[in-house]
Amino acid sequence: MSRKMTGIVKSFDIHSGKGLITPSDGRKDVLLHISAFNTSESESLLPGIRVEFCRINSLSGPMAANIYVT
Question: Which InterPro entries match (predicted)?
Fold first, then answer.
């Protein structure tokens, strides 16, 4: 099940394509992967950027899908 959320990018490693988003609702940080972006907005992905995403549950914990920079 996915849930649409907003949050702030906490960290992002351009070399691995992985990072963390801190959800605005105070929940646990969510993993992100560069492949979850729908556009080339990933080039502007820096800590502190506000994003909208769907939170999904994966085997490794909560992950972000369908990420957009807002």
Answer: Cold_shock_CspA, CSD, CSP_DNA-bd, NA-bd_OB-fold
3-class DSSP state of 40: helix
Question: What are the residue ranges spanned by the domains of the chain?
Answer: 3-69
pLDDT of residue 40: 66
Q: Which residue has the tokens 């556009």?
A: 39
Q: Residue 44, by phi and psi: left (phi above 0), alpha (psi -120 to 50) or beta?
A: alpha
Candidates 3.40.50.800, 3.20.110.20, 3.90.226.10, 2.40.50.140; CATH matching 3-69: 2.40.50.140
What pLDDT score does 45 carry? 75
